[in-house]
Design goal:
The complex is a heterodimer of chains A (278) and B (252). Chain A is of the alpha+beta class. Chain A has 8 helices and 14 strands. Chain A has a 7-stranded mixed β-sheet with strand order 3-4-5-6-7-8-9, sandwiched between helices. A 5-stranded mixed β-sheet of chain A has the order 11-10-12-14-13, with helices on both faces. In chain A, strands 1-2 form a two-stranded antiparallel sheet. By secondary structure, chain B is α/β, with parallel strands linked by helices. Classes of the chains: A alpha+beta (278), B alpha/beta (252). The interface between A and B is large, with 40 and 38 residues.
Chain lengths: 278, 252
């Protein structure tokens, strides 16, 4: 076979479309909300149903593959990345937005082999924008090639990040200090749309020039990481070192210059890792 | 209001809808082109040629149809025209709300047209330039999104609220400290979340559709709020000053 993983990617796109349809249908009905680790860590039945749909569909075709899914992990499944072909799934990225019917909601799937991301699919399902990227084959939105803005001057950049509740006040203060540090460079602006995977796609298609975040998960980043790289962007750790999918943090940007500038400006705070117990 | 006035403002609103569509299409084309960007009050307070062109298009069209009416437009004010609201029928226009988003092709940009008579806001029209959604409201006649009635969320508990705001163009330490302090209070409530999208008019429309529960901001102009205030009120929501007092339309 020329490309052993292309068939997996085609299947991924098909099941993602079904997942997106399930999410849009759920938006027409009442949504009942449960909480996970805190009153603002929300989950719904739709998150669980969508993840079950995706995993069962893939397992049927690829019974030997491994899975790291947000809701499976919440239910106690391990989240260690091995060399096995592994599907890393966020069934609804932006669950808070979904609950409120606020427009940035996505399905995010990244596929790794030997711990390398081979392809990514992110479906921004309210906007009906399907972002896809296969390693070495470019990035696309609804089949149209996309690329990062190429911006290298941080004073002309649009930066994305998110502000979340932090039970540790010092972590919160560091999060806000990081924002102030970036704002006073100055950058053109900061936006906080509410879905990590969509944020990565906004950088990939040039609508923003950078996204940084401390405290997300591998399932938020895996799909988008492939898309940004194939769109010509850069992804790295917040310290400026190599990107680590299980580190729960990232800086992505349209250029190395901007990524490194942001990495220099922001301070880390502890956020745990996806592959260790907190 | 006399029945003639009622009919007249209805006709004005129909024209507003038409010109919002037309202006919106101009913005949609302009967003794909290279933009010439300059700054106004600070390096982060951006303006483009498109802002000026779209405002000229809107005002010239309206002036031709309604020669006795007054106009308050963002770019006209920047050029030195007075921003005083009188009793006269007055159009209050933001030709491109979210200019920074427009410059970056970030998908939250709107044309906003409000209309006031005797200092009372009579109708508002907001056109989302990226997805073509039209938000409209006429005082006493409800609020609509693409012709479908909309209403605010019924949520009263801040710990279940999604809150929208903006950072604004001011980046001095005192302003940023206040911003952080406000974030701490809201996120500790704990509100469900805070979102920043860069267009006050579209943020306000999301309140009107129930997609978020609240929006607060300092430093807005009357052209940012005039249309959206009608839409929110007609959707069952409220608009107040950040002090908790009644809102004064041109008070920032």
């Amino acid at each position: 076979m020329d490309d052993p993983w292309m068939e997996c990617m085609d299947h991924c796109i098909a099941v993602t479309k079904e997942a997106g349809k399930m999410i849009r249908e759920a938006l027409q009905k009442d949504i009942s909300i449960m909480q996970k680790s805190s009153p603002v860590d929300l989950v719904t039945e739709t998150d669980q149903k969508v993840e079950a749909l995706i995993i069962s569909s893939i397992k049927k075709k690829y019974p030997t593959h491994s899975f790291i899914g947000e809701e499976s992990v919440a239910a106690g499944a391990p989240s260690i990345l091995t060399d096995s072909p592994t599907w890393i799934i966020d069934p609804i990225d932006g669950t808070t937005n979904f609950v409120h019917r606020f427009p940035f909601v996505s399905v995010s799937i990244g596929f790794t082999v030997n711990k390398e991301i081979e392809f990514g699919v992110v479906y921004s399902c309210i906007e009906e924008k399907m972002y896809t990227a296969r390693k070495g084959k470019g990035a696309f939105c609804n089949g149209v090639p996309i690329k990062v803005s190429g911006q290298e001057d941080i004073t002309k950049s649009m930066v994305l990040t998110e502000m979340g509740f932090k039970s540790d006040l010092q972590h919160f203060r560091t999060m806000m200090a990081n924002m102030e540090s970036i704002l006073t460079i100055p950058v053109h602006g900061i936006r906080a749309p509410g879905s990590a995977a969509v944020n990565m796609c906004l950088v990939a298609c040039g609508a923003a020039d950078a996204y940084y975040h401390i405290g997300i998960h591998c399932w938020d980043m895996a799909g988008g990481a492939a898309i940004i790289r194939e769109a010509g962007g850069v992804i790295m750790d917040i310290t400026g070192g190599p990107f680590d999918l299980m580190s729960r943090r990232l800086v992505t940007a349209s250029s190395k210059a901007i990524a490194e500038h942001i990495a220099q400006k922001i301070q880390p705070f502890p956020c745990g890792r996806d592959d260790t117990e907190d | 209001m006399t029945s003639t006035e009622i009919k007249c403002w209805g006709e004005c609103m129909d024209v507003a809808v038409q010109i919002a569509h037309k202006a919106g299409k101009v913005v949609q084309e302009a967003v794909k082109q290279e933009k010439r960007v300059s700054s106004k009050s600070t390096p982060t307070d951006l303006v483009t040629e498109a802002d000026q062109q779209v405002e000229d298009l809107i005002i010239s069209t309206l002036r031709e149809k309604f020669p006795s009416h007054r106009f308050i437009g963002e770019e006209s004010s920047a050029a030195g025209e007075k921003c005083i609201l009188t009793d006269e029928p007055t159009w209050i226009i933001d030709p491109i709300d979210g200019t920074c988003n427009f410059v970056h092709s970030f998908p939250m940009v709107a044309v906003s047209i409000g209309f006031a008579v005797k200092k009372e806001l009579e109708f508002g029209v907001i056109y989302h330039c990226f997805d073509g959604t039209l938000y409209t409201a006429r005082r006493g006649h409800g609020a609509f999104c693409n012709g479908t009635p909309i209403q605010v969320s019924k949520e009263k508990d801040i710990s279940k609220a999604l809150i929208l705001t903006e950072i604004g163009a001011k980046r001095d330490p005192a302003t940023l400290e206040i911003f952080s302090g406000n974030m701490l209070k809201l996120l500790s409530a704990p509100a469900h979340g805070v979102r920043i999208i860069g267009s006050s008019t579209l943020a306000l429309c999301h309140i009107a559709t129930g997609a978020a529960e609240a929006y607060y901001q300092y430093g807005l102009h009357c052209w940012d709020i005039a249309a959206a205030a009608v839409i929110i009120r007609e959707a069952g929501g409220c608009v107040i000053d950040t002090s908790g007092e009644p809102w004064d339309g041109c008070f920032r």
